[in-house]
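Suppose a classmate hands you a notebook page containing two proteins, each written out with its sequence and a corresponding row of structure tokens. How would you begin to make sense of it? This section walks through that situation. The first entry is reproduced here exactly as it would appear on such a page.
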Amino acid sequence: MPESQREVQALLALSQAERPQRVRCLLAHFGSAQAALAAADWTAAVGASAPERRPTPADLAWAAEQWRRLGSAGGRCLAPTDADYPQLLGQIAAPPPVLFALGPDDLAPPAVAIVGSRKASDSGKLIAAELARELVAQGIGIVSGLAFGIDAAAHQAALAASGRTIAVLGCGADVPYPRAHTPLYRQIREQGAIVSEFAWGAPPERGAFPRRNRIISGLSLGVVIVEAPQKSGALITVQHALEQNREVFAVPGDVRSGRNAGCHQLIKDGAKLVEHVDDVLEELTIWASPLPQSAPVPAPALPPEDESVYALLSRQPRHIDELAQHSTLPPATLLDVLLRLELDGLVDQLAGKRFLRRTG
């Protein structure tokens, strides 16, 4: 069995037996799922007071069966340590320890989430479709949840415009849901990507959908809400987006219908009002045109402080707080270096104090 397969199966077995937070602790402490399974004592990784639920032979057999079914479907199983694991998603507070994926899309940014009411009006669906078309025309992918209403309109418009789209499911990646969207599911699987943190074959369950919403926002540079009443699942995605330092956008609408009350409250609370795609693009100016294929600008001879900060950056936006965690510089010095690199044309700053290397 290849080493990569052994590691994935060990990770699947851990994920079946343990809560995601404990799996992350085990991986951080032992360095790999296989090492965690081989360790006799997990106390240093998860604490002495935590009850221990080590994978059983049944869990290992289940993991082997998951791998077999995944391979038969041509799917992928990604861990946060994999090069193909989406970097933006890996930066959130609770990234999925296992991400199942179907389809050709590499899950790489840039992407924007478009979500909203399942019972959307025709006008709302038209607005979502228009935004999706115009975003993919600028090389920006569309992330949504394959639900009725706004989600479906955004996915369909992205596909029709030959753009990238990613559907995040609250069930197994191999389970089309809702069933009425099976044709749309198949089209996304052929042209984009279907992703889920839930096991292969897992049925849809009510509590899974709020949980998957953190992945929708985690894969995205920002979240656009089109039609959301005061109590809407889309607002859960907004909460995750705010916690993840993502941009939040809201489309205003009819004040009498009640369909837009959630959007209007978001705007009152500081979300960017969206009347046109330019309202989104101006907050994401670095992605306002298809990404160039040239390599990132090589750093010239830099002072040691500048070089250490530049080494922490890539083409994936990183928040200032995350950079501070990995830098030995005081926060004030770190910010001064970032601004200096920006003035030198080596770094771009996005809204929300996020930084990335500039391409040549």
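The notebook's second entry, a different protein, reads as follows.
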Amino acid sequence: MRLKMLQYAPKKDPITRKNMDEFDYYEVLELDRNASSEEIKRAYRKMALKYHPDKNQNNPEAEAKFKQINEAYQILSDEQKRAVYDRYGKAGLSASGGGGGFESAFGDFADVFDSFFGGGRKRGGERSREMLDIGIEMEIGFFEAVFGCKKTIRYRYAKPCESCGGTGGKRKSCSYCSGQGQVYQRQGFMTFSQTCPKCGGAGSTLENACKECRGKGSTVIDDSFELTIPEGIDKGQRIRVGGRGNVGKSGSRGDLYVSIGVIEDAVFVRHEHNVYIETPVFFTLCALGGEIEVATLRGRQKLEIPRGTRDKAQISLKGEGVKSIGSSRIGDMIVQIKIVYPAKLTKEQEELLTKLHESFGHEGTTHASFFEEVFERIKGWFV
């Protein structure tokens, strides 16, 4: 029995007219080669929305581009595969078994189309919980974060279109996967499955779009409410507001997550629960010691300056910092001393300072003896 060898002929990309195996993953997603993982994800979502088959029906060029986009995202979103691709190209991926289907890409993005195109795979009878949740950002002032405040939140959420029930319109069985949501590819004696690139795993495609939602399956609602910002919140922290997210087809609703940004203050510097402030102190007071009045978060307070205080010395005021969320603990305020010298001296002040300097005698010239010792040590290197 003789086996007939089949020569592989690479397919042509209908958009570039080049071999489909030749396209560059970064060019497909319109990215620089040093793009971060977040930039890759944002670019993928943007491109996938643009070329998705539901928005480009009967368009083979868009379908081919959609496949390229998902293949590129599968590789570039995986750190190990991306490293291999950056160093060896597609040949390296083939050698390491990194090429192939687009399951990870579609797995990441299918829920987006569940939310906005009305179809899609269901997980546990409902859309992914992650896609029902909403995240927004809000910036507040320094003292608003320290002492808490109330803010009016204005945002938008999605709910299923009442006209079409969230389907996006009349749907038909996907011709690409025969309604299975999966397509299969045979390589030798092995068979691989991947999410259908045309329907995103839904098993159906949009035939007649709903006039109300234009095939999206959802409508956007403007909403607002008053949010209480807790005392002591810090930048980068999130507040979860239950039941304020997107609405699913079953009627369940996700949550709203508010990410907090804090405007820096011109005087106070915060680090976790402690607050720092730099306070100018005249040089004679640092030498003699004494008492000054400093500004704290909660008003004025007296501060004892020990005799002989040095520049950049730090003195703590207990319990004058920021309260810890969920407890009674309050941080400290650290006062950093900045020694201030007179900008100008009168003749009388200069004479007084000269007499004061001379009165210290040997102590006033300790720098001289110090450097003499240093010079002696250096000489040894040149003998």
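A careful reader of the second entry would note: The longest strand covers residues 149-160.
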